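Narrative summary of target 7.
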Amino acid sequence: MREIIFDTETTGLDMRDDRIIELGGVELVNRFPTGKTFHHYINPQGRSIHAEAQAVHGISMADLQGKPSFAEIVEEWIAFTDGAKLVAHNATFDIGFLNVEFGRLGHPAVDIGRVVDTLALARRRHPMGPNSLDALCRRYGIDNARRTKHGALLDSELLAEVYIELIGGKQTALILDTVAVQMNGAGEVADIDISVGARPIALPPRLSEAERAAHAGMVATLGEKALWLKVMGA
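Modeled conformation, tokenized:
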């Protein structure tokens, strides 16, 4: 099972007018990192960066001089994500921006059936919050000291660790089959279904023969006591 944990940084918050300026992702296979990553800074083709957005991610127009346009990296991204689930934190934002960029180039929109929203998973598991990426890193003991600014690749790497914890930790992740996210007509998460498969190999028993014998003796004694009480009408 392939999953791409990804993140975007943008010139602002308006999907209609703003553009993606950084796109990063990491590959998981069967919930383990493979070491394969995707990362590009992207020239927004004349669109300026809002000061509020720059304060968050620290990317300036000067940083994007000479960088490729989205059109120049889109085929590489499509090849990297082909056949994989797409996992993002507040996925409605990132998928929305991707779909607008795809639409400008005549590419089909991302199928929402491929998308897993870790923010929705976090709100389901921790309804009292907080559920920001930084808060989840603190909750699960994940070192995010390098995250002084938002960054698409770094945030994807951190989110990959958070995602494994959200779906049950590294041991449970070995036997999870699917995480299916149902979206409603407004592009919001309506339901999440996590399917857990059977272990392909049973765990070895942890009880010694002596412990098994002691347990069997206790069960037999309790059974005899229950029978005696029934006979006595207790």
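The beta strands are 2-10, 20-29, 32-41, 85-88, 115-117, 176-183, 189-196.
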